[in-house]
Amino acid sequence: MSAAIDTNVLVRVLVQDPTAAVQCAAARRVVAEASARGEPLLVTLCALLEAEWVLRSRYKVERASMTAAVIAMLETPGIEFEHEPTVEEALYLFEQYPSADFADCLLLARATHLGRNRFLTFDAGAARLPRAELVQ
What we know:
By secondary structure, this protein is mainly alpha-helical. It is built from 6 helices and 4 strands, in the order H-H-E-H-H-E-H-H-E-E. It has helices at 7-14, 21-37, 45-57, 63-74, 84-96, 102-113; strands spanning 41-43, 79-81, 119-121, 132-134. It has a two-stranded parallel ribbon. The chain has a two-stranded parallel sheet with strand order 3-4. The longest helix is centred in the first third of the chain and has 17 residues, at 21-37. The radius of gyration is 16 Å and the shape is globular. The relative contact order is 0.12.
């Protein structure tokens, strides 16, 4: 049986929130069980994007910590990503372009992997990314 995880499960895997200790333990157990069965849990790109927002806005996680958390998930046997090359490229862009948001990096990376060579935006920070163009 294969399964994908919701953002709230993903956040509980990443954060030791004392107000949700039971859920944190359950989330970690689910990942461990999936790994033991050889059936990694899928993290969709949408869930990853939403989790980044929750970590940044609710838990005040810094850029470097966010990057480290995603890298750790990439290396976790019980977790797989919808499109790992997109996630890896988004992490690279996020690290190289501090004016860009993770969402912009993920969107650009996904567009690139879908064969698009331009990323059009009204966001001046995102326009600094490679292949991005500011719409005027």
